[in-house]
Structure formats: structure tokens, C-alpha cells
Write a structure and sequence with these properties.
alpha/beta, 12 helices, seven-stranded parallel sheet, three-stranded mixed sheet
Length: 329
């Protein structure tokens, strides 16, 4: 079951699970994609049962109905993104906290014989400053946004429900996903994708934060690969600390633009127009992350790109058919 299956990562995860099943890499009988809105796919002629369910997971009884199917694995991706969680306090807590606990509680009370693996998507937003020069696996979780606080609470729930044997959980603290395909969303981190995605499509992009703003990034493809890798991790190696910081590429906005120039040239970069938004800058200043070590995750086989140029090239190959404005990369 993929909860949040119609989101960007959810759709890519479902597609990758199906492809891995076709390739014989994993054995999947049924995939249930759950989302609050329109939830469908153009995937046809596949070797798995694929069901799309529209459901409101803020309703506990709905969660009980979903869990009554007893899926062996539950990917919990559903969330109200960072900017929206900050501007709409009640909705953020209702979706990011209450709905998460609804799912976990529905698993707990289903039966004593039901013990699924739960893969919970957390975020680098669980960290807050002041930052050291390097964030290692021992750095304190002290978020400075409502979204980050909601994710920390979710992580603690994963630890506790796993400790008590209600399910076998693992949490992945994802870096900022870049380049996000599609249209801009309400995530405060959206600017980091906008300044790459829009110019590559021949559109003007507005840079709303300063060029020295720094973030840790990974591509949608590596995020999905790491989610699937989480299925096979020996969770006894995690102890009671079930949540892992995923590896990522640290870059400033200026370094993003330099990478875009290296890959795509002057004309593409010229489509970026600077217009600083004080509210956006204030929000991202809560992050401005130094590099992560992610030693625990890498020791368990999780990985990411080696450069920001590689992230851009993956976007071009996966979302633009390998072309920039009609010309092959």
C-alpha cells in the first residue's frame, strides 16, 4: 500500500515497484495506491493487481478499512508540504500528525498476527539551527517549522510502535527533492526546483531567495530507489533509532545555477530572474543546511547522486526525453 500514491513521489514509486516486478527484482502481487484526490494511472498490461483508492486518512475509520486489507508493506508518503503546513496550522497537524497516528493505530489494533513493514517518509526539516559545520547522525532534532515538528513526532511514533512490536518500521529523512517535475507546489523548497525546471522547459523562473541560500538535495529517482531499498534493510541493525538521514548533495543556489549553466548553457540560465521574497527567504533561512554525513544510511546501502549536474541530467533524461528545447542533451 502506497499512502499518498497520487503525489509526485507516490506515482514514481508505484511505477518503479511495477517495473521491478516486471524485471523480477521483487515479487509483488498487489499494489494499493491511496490518496485523498484523483488517484489513477495510465499504466496498463501489468503483472500485478493495481487498485486506486480515494480516501481521507484523517478519518480513523477509513484508515481501519484500508488496513483491513493487511498489506505486507505500507509506504506512508502522504503529507501537507512545508509552506502549507506553516500557513495552515490546523491542516498541517491534522494531516501530518493525526492521520499518521490513525494509520499506525489502525495497524496496532488490526490483530496480533499482523506485523507489516512500514516505510515512513520524514524530512531534513527535522533539523534546525544553529548548525555545526557538518550534520552527522548524532545531531539533535530541533526543527524550527511546524512541518519539521510534525515529522519529528512521526519519527518518534515509528520508533515507539516498532519497539513495542506493532509493526516493523523504518523512517527515511529525505533531502529536498530536486528537480521536482510538474507544476510548482506549496512547498517552501519549491524554488530550488523552479529555477531548474522552468528554464529547461524554456520558461522564465523567478528566484525568490538569495544565491547564498544552501540546501541538501537528491533526485526523485534516488528518493524512490531508497524507499524501495528500505524494504530489504535488516531493521535489527537500527536498534530503537529507526529513522535515517538519507545522503544528499549540498549546494547553494549559486552552485545550482552554475551546474545548470554547465549542463544547458547561457540561454537557459538567462531565463532565471531574481526577485527576492522576504517571506520565502525567512522560511528557507530556517534550513540553510551544511553537508550531511549520513553514515548510518550509507552503511546500509542507501545512496544518491554524486553532483548537482547529475541531478539535472536525470531530470532531463527522465522528464524531458533527454532534450533541452528540442535538442538532444
Amino acid at each position: 500500500m502506497v499512502v499518498g500514491g497520487n503525489g509526485m513521489l507516490g506515482r514514481k514509486l508505484v511505477a518503479k515497484l511495477i517495473q521491478n516486478s516486471i524485471d523480477g527484482k521483487i515479487d509483488v502481487e498487489t499494489i494499493i495506491s491511496v490518496d485523498v484526490g484523483s488517484n489513477q494511472s495510465e499504466i496498463k498490461k501489468i503483472p500485478v493487481n493495481l487498485a486506486f483508492v480515494t480516501a481521507d486518512i484523517t478519518n480513523f475509520k477509513v484508515c481501519q478499512q484500508l488496513i483491513s486489507n493487511k498489506p505486507d508493506v505500507i509506504f506512508h508518503l502522504a503529507a501537507v508540504v512545508s509552506g502549507e503546513a506553516e500557513s495552515n496550522f490546523e491542516t498541517g497537524y491534522k494531516v501530518n500528525l493525526d492521520a499518521t497516528r490513525n494509520i499506525f493505530e489502525a495497524i496496532r489494533i488490526e490483530s496480533n498476527n499482523y506485523h507489516p513493514r512500514v516505510v515512513f517518509t520524514s524530512s531534513a526539516a527535522v533539523y534546525g539551527g544553529p548548525f555545526p559545520e557538518l550534520i552527522n547522525d548524532e545531531f539533535i532534532l530541533q526543527p524550527t517549522t511546524s512541518y519539521g515538528i510534525q515529522k519529528v513526532i512521526g519519527e518518534l511514533l515509528v520508533n515507539d510502535y516498532s519497539r513495542l512490536g506493532f509493526f516493523n518500521g523504518i523512517g527515511l529523512r529525505l533531502p529536498t527533492i530536486c528537480v521536482r517535475p510538474g507544476k510548482p507546489n506549496a512547498a517552501a523548497s519549491g524554488v530550488f526546483s523552479n529555477i531548474i525546471r522552468e528554464p529547461l522547459a524554456g520558461k522564465e523562473a523567478i528566484l525568490t531567495v538569495s544565491k547564498d541560500t544552501q540546501m541538501v538535495f537528491a533526485s526523485p529517482q534516488s528518493a524512490v530507489d531508497n524507499l524501495i531499498h528500505a524494504l530489504n534493510v535488516d531493521t535489527t541493525l537500527l536498534g530503537n533509532r529507526r529513522c535515517l538521514t538519507m545522503p544528499g548533495i549540498t549546494a547553494t543556489v549559486a552552485e545550482e545555477i552554475q551546474a545548470l549553466h554547465k549542463v544547458a548553457g547561457d540561454k537557459i540560465v538567462a531565463l532565471i530572474k531574481e526577485s527576492i521574497d522576504p517571506s520565502a527567504q525567512k522560511f528557507v533561512n530556517n534550513w540553510n543546511f551544511p553537508p550531511f554525513t549520513a553514515d548510518r544510511a550509507q552503511g546500509l546501502g542507501f545512496s544518491c547522486e554524486q553532483s548537482f549536474e547529475e541531478i539535472i541530467i536525470k531530470h532531463i533524461n527522465n522528464e524531458l526525453s533527454g532534450e533541452i528545447l528540442g535538442a538532444k542533451l
